[in-house]
Protein 1
Amino acid sequence: MTLARREFLQLSSTALGSAMLLPGLLAAASSQNLYSNSIVIDGLGFPGSMDSPDQSELSMEEISDVARSGLTAVHLTLGEVGTMPPLQAFEKIIRDTTHWDAEISSNSEVFLAVRSSADIQTAKSVGKTGLIYGLQDGVAFEDDIDRLVSLQHVGIRVIQPTYNRRNLLGDGCLEAADAGLSQTGSKAVEQIQQLGILLDLSHCGRRTAADAIALAKRPVSFTHTGCFALAEHPRHRTDQELKAVADTGGVSGIFIMPYLAKGAQPTAADVLAHLAHAIKVAGEDHVSLGTDGLISPAVLTDEYKQQFREMT
């Protein structure tokens, strides 16, 4: 038995549409047409499957899964998260960009590199899935923010200053001190926005996120998160934070993670509850999906079920 993420996205689109579209429009369009006619972006996702080793070439089946998904674009994480010295982390990102550039070139009938918003429109018009390169940690440039220029040059378009822990830029969401951005972090945030890179605050500590939003001259994002009001967890965002991101013109994406259901296995009802709450707080133009999941369906083996229970 498999559960394809596209099926969930179609159901989500239908449920959201019932709240946002005129009844007459809903009556005239099937859920499939609504999905296929929309620009659909996963705020954080990963081509491939549970069996794909790092840096391995995608299989034909995994490529086919992407093509069938109907996704217009997906934000794809490159590099590491706080587990390497800065220069090694930077080199890992360069290797990852080389790997994914090769995947795009080898599978150009399915993939398209996204370097600007116009590329997302192009991906939709030609029926491809655009890959948006992003980082979930700023460790690669924490000791030299001039590396940001090189990262922008190789295609990085989304950056989180911190992951869960502290780095030289600021505190992550699991740091009890919640010390906010450092002076270097503040300069990095300004540089990120000047370069036209989307500032992602998903894993940042609350004060770090607040400091970054206060500095923002362009929209910022929580690409993958949940609502703290529904399930208190360090990775979830308060109503005040969701509204603050919306006020910059940015978007908060709801993920599909166990945190949504307070340590129980989440269901579609949990995901929809978080979506509905975020829309109520931030407005429908500022809420999205960032699944934090794989595009290929999970195969529900006994081993997978056991791993899932442990993670939950």
Protein 2
Amino acid sequence: MPKLVGGSGPIDSKIVFVGEAPGAEEDRLGVPFVGVSGELLTSIIHGLGLAREDIYITNVVKERPKDNKIEQFIKFDKGRTLVTEAYTKYENFLYEELSHTKANVYVAIGGVALWALCRQDKISKRRGSILQGHWPPQGGKVVPIIHPASALRNYIFTHFIRFDLRRAIEESAYPDIRLPSRRLHIEPSFIEAMAYLQSCYNRPKLGFDIEVVNEEISCISIARTPYDCMSIPFVMEGRDYFTIDQEIAIWQEIANILETPSIEKVGHNVCFDSTFIFIKYGIRSVNLKDSMVSSSICYPDFPKGLDFVTSICTREPYYKDDG
């Protein structure tokens, strides 16, 4: 009969931590997250002004896996998630356990907890996202973080965990999910595209981004504000989206915007976008601000991709796999 390690902490806590499975020290003491990984997690929590004693902490799997190999219960393999009967029993036990909590936010610590709470994988991508939990009866608000055991092997993850736990603490103030509300205009008509572009001249700052397919610009997106953006396609389903005359008119408006010094243009790796547009159409973009350069200066050791910077600087959930 395996030794089971249950949850620890106040059941009415506003924050609940859900880990993977007990380790050697947890198995010995019968308390979750008291080993080396737990010490690191506790240190980060205290550094953010939160007491461990105020948090309810548990694990998906309640017994220590043999040789600490969680694959005996659950395995992520080339896009598939394989679970054993024992894992399913522990997961159902977890759902019953969580039904007695009243947390505003649940912190999924590592990939196993992310799967159990949200039926999603790829913890390194989804960490920091504000997600809807899936467990019955209606789930809850979930913020995933990288497991502190990974931070013991790769120190930079400690900073990611700190960022994401700070978000979880902020989210613990209320139970509902409050994501940014954005108006995204897609597949506009020629008249709608022209009207949107002409409305950009009175804006002090714009965001823009291009997508390139087969050495051609397939679309350009312009954002008047962080919450109002239009994506103007030039190719769709292998065909030109506009007539030649319409596309010329649109690019003339885009050129006027990009070449206007009084309008600040912001983009991620905008050096590439502006250079490509210049080589392709001779448009000389001015007054550019590159968020990739800015983030590299502020956080030189962090990843430079837009998805990562988005996870740190905004509340937008991970989006890259949306297609």
Protein 3
Amino acid sequence: MTARRLSLLAAVVAAVVALSVMVLSLIPFGDEKGAGVALIGGPYELVDQTGRVVTEQTDAGKLRLIYFGYTYCPDVCPTELSVMSQALDLLGEDAAEVQPIFITIDPQRDTPAQMAEYVQHFYPSMLGLTGSPEQVAAAAKTYRVYYAKGPGDDEDYLMDHSSFIYVMGRDGSYLAHFGPNTAPETMAEQLRKLL
């Protein structure tokens, strides 16, 4: 990788982290009645790595860890999915109460087969979800996820995107989120409190 490309990649990563913090800080809380509920999460219909249709109700009854990214991501996505996997390992038997979910923001390249190949490198029960561009956009919108395709040809490009791991409750409601560089131990400790 050339020095120019490394510099560009570092600038993109820094911009994404800064934008992620800014976007999450702008997320409105509550409705017009002041219920104090974060407006994160909602209905989606996607396809997992086996071709099965998955909705926000598929794993009702479990906590869900949800991360939006893409399989061609050079560093941020594999790092965050590794942290998620390590945190689940630290939970031991309690990890059975948590469903890890990786949702692509690059449906053009992330087919079910590509997702299957990718998620096998992380936690055994991780779901890799994809769909049509419209389905992915709808899911990302419900989670207030920013993403945009970077420059490049049809096969060689990077995606800019926010980078948060969302914790959704057993009923699908937003409980918490973890920002970039959260330690697996911190994540496991917080998850244990939510189980």
Protein 4
Amino acid sequence: MTNFLAALLIVSLTASGIIGGVFFIFSTTIMRSLAARPTDEAIGIMNEINAVIVRTNFMAVFLGNVILSLVVIGFSVFGNSFSGRWFAVSGAVFYLIGGFLVTIIFNVPRNNALAAAVPDDPIAANLVWQDYLREWTFWNHVRTFACIASAMFLAFSLVS
């Protein structure tokens, strides 16, 4: 394994761990805290979080690791063979599918729907929020697991 590839794996591993940690804190703390708040307040806070997060360094790490994962796959499959290459590919695939695609396919559309929903009726607002909370959190658990698995497989690639 070249020094460049080792560095690439370490950076991708770190990015997967950072993103997995952000998702983990949502699953274990933020969503539970919002669930305990009044519905209109919870919706407002979640909409604010969703608006702010896309303007932070989170996006650079989140999207940057997509590029890193593609490069890891390319070097692992088409570059010089190294003993942990299938761990590296697995780690990159876990991030691409479970971290990135799950976000794009399941979480972002729910975020957009929550932002667009402005029910004046408290009962309707509560139904919207409860559906969002259940479905969004489920998919967040999936992407949390995927990012942690990504970091683990990338670590295995470095030590195998």
